[in-house]
């Protein structure tokens, strides 16, 4: 093999390494973070993450409850459209990694839980990097595996507010 051929091969391999998509490796290596308690704000010990577990046809997650209406616990208007949303709308916020810089804004996901399924529109980010401030209604950063759903999502899944799981339930989800 001539020096010129060897040099060209090395450059080609280096180029491949530089341009090969890294998101797949980063996503699959992203560990699930545990949820932050409200006390992490006062102790400045909140876990923060910019990645979420890889999305599959049945992505495990935790469904939490969010009030997307003005004055609700969601804080500011929804990131995707700058609007507040009524609790009768099936809407969700996704953890930072799944929100992916807004790439899922306006898209629908299918949520499976409690033996039921429903679709919901992505309207916001459940911020896994920032929190404990007025923009986030004083709440700590989200864990990186959160689907934060409106009351309508919980109702569509048949989970009454009297159920112990209401507000925090294991689910799976997929892009619709």
From TrEMBL:
<protein>
    <submittedName>
        <fullName>Uncharacterized protein</fullName>
    </submittedName>
</protein>
<dbReference type="InterPro" id="IPR039271">
    <property type="entry name" value="Kiwellin-like"/>
</dbReference>
<feature type="signal peptide">
    <location>
        <begin position="1"/>
        <end position="26"/>
    </location>
</feature>
<dbReference type="Pfam" id="PF24300">
    <property type="entry name" value="KWL1"/>
</dbReference>
<comment type="similarity">
    <text>Belongs to the kiwellin family.</text>
</comment>
<keyword id="KW-0732">Signal</keyword>
<dbReference type="InterPro" id="IPR036908">
    <property type="entry name" value="RlpA-like_sf"/>
</dbReference>
<keyword id="KW-0964">Secreted</keyword>
<dbReference type="GO" id="GO:0005576">
    <property type="term" value="C:extracellular region"/>
</dbReference>
